Amino acid sequence: MQKAAVKIRDQIKEHAAGMLEIDDPTSLILRDGKALAPDRRALTLAEVALNSLHQQNQHQIIASASHMSYKSPPPTAAQFAELSLDTQTGQIKVERLLMVVDCGRVINPLTAAGQVEGGMAQALGFTLTEDMMFDEDGNITNASLDKYHVFKSNELPNMDVIFVQTDEPGGPFGAKSVSEISIDGVAPAVVSAVHDAVGIWLRELPLYPDRVRQALADRKTLDKLN
Predict the structure, then answer these.
(1) I want to staple 129 with a disulfide (CB 3.0 to 4.6 A). Which of 19, 58, 117, 149 is the partner?
(2) What would the pLDDT profile of 131-140 be if each residue is shown by its tens digit?
């Protein structure tokens, strides 16, 4: 975006300089929707665009650019989960998810937070409910959303995101990626919270209630043997 904007800026200055008969386009300043000359003459950006496209040269002011970093410093994060667990039924209910994220300089906090919240929501389904079921012939038996449970918005827990602002020299404006980091921490955080609550480690996902009940029963059996 920055590189494309610079190209657009230079095109505007060049065309405005021609309109104002100024030899040095770099002497123009773009501010408040105008191209300002050193002698205080000014053109609006609308006037420059109209003249460029329809009145002189028929040139549309347009540009594209791309950016590739040869460094790919990873984002980092810490994930927290608060939950309740019914030891009779094995049902887990996640009450709150919090992720603290270092993704460099956060350029757009609203969309970045949405990315993290969406990742946590997807990961919660992976952790608790989402699994492909197959019959003995290899056919999927839950290939519809009435059998394959994806969390709906009204089923999600409270989710909070905290950004730890750092500056990444190799990224645009100091930013790093904020992509898959948001999906990585939910499962281990929930598993750790279950262990903290009832002292069992669950090592197979999703955390279905019957798996939780079985793990609780196995622990009771082991306690009796000891």
Answers:
(1) 149
(2) 999 999 999 9
Q: Indicate which CATH number applies to the domain containing 207.
A: 3.30.365.10
* Segment 85-120, tens digit of pLDDT: 999 999 999 999 999 999 999 989 999 999 999 999
Largest CA distance in the chain: 95
**Spatial distance between the Cα atoms of 210 and 62, rounded to a whole number of angstroms:** 60
- HSE at residue 88, side-chain half, CA atoms within 13 A, is 0
Long-range contacts of 64-68 (CB under 8 A, 24+ apart): 64/4, 65/3, 65/4, 65/6, 65/7, 66/3, 67/2, 67/3, 67/172
Cis ω for the linkage preceding 74 (within 30 of 0): no
Nearest C-alpha neighbor of 87 from the set 197, 186, 207? 197
Work out how many domains the chain is built from and give that number: 2
How many CB atoms sit inside 10 A of residue 223's CB? Answer: 9
R_g (Cα) of the chain, nearest Å: 28
Q: How far is CA 19 from CA 29, 35, 36, 44, in A?
A: 14, 11, 12, 12
Q: Is residue 149 part of a domain?
A: yes
Q: Is residue 129 part of a domain?
A: yes
Beta bridge mates, 102: 76
